[in-house]
Amino acid sequence: MSSKDEKNLTQVVDKIAKMDEPRRSTMQRVHDVITAAAPTLKPRIWYGMPAYAMSASTPALITLRNDERLNLAITEKAAFRAAGGVDGQLMPAAWYFETVDDATEKRIAEIVRSVVD
What we know:
38% of the residues lie in helices and 22% in strands. By secondary structure, it is α+β, with helices and mostly antiparallel strands. Residues 1-24 are annotated as: Disordered.
């Protein structure tokens, strides 16, 4: 891991550590899921949010927000595929959550892998 990647990872971990409980634990769990599901993604801060990109110098593909609700989002920089079916041309791009159970963890991992595959 390069020194830039290490610095960026530290910034993301610090950002999560500054959150109040129980959100801190939830966001840490989501961070762990993202880094395990797509180890090639590099954590970084993107517009003040924990985010994940292909490199330290490329735009973020996935962001985590800690606003009124917790949010996992795919940025416009990710390759979008139309959802098809009843959703037509719409592409799901954001998911809100308050807690993470095993099923939600599995779905987050699927979403993250779909961005990097």
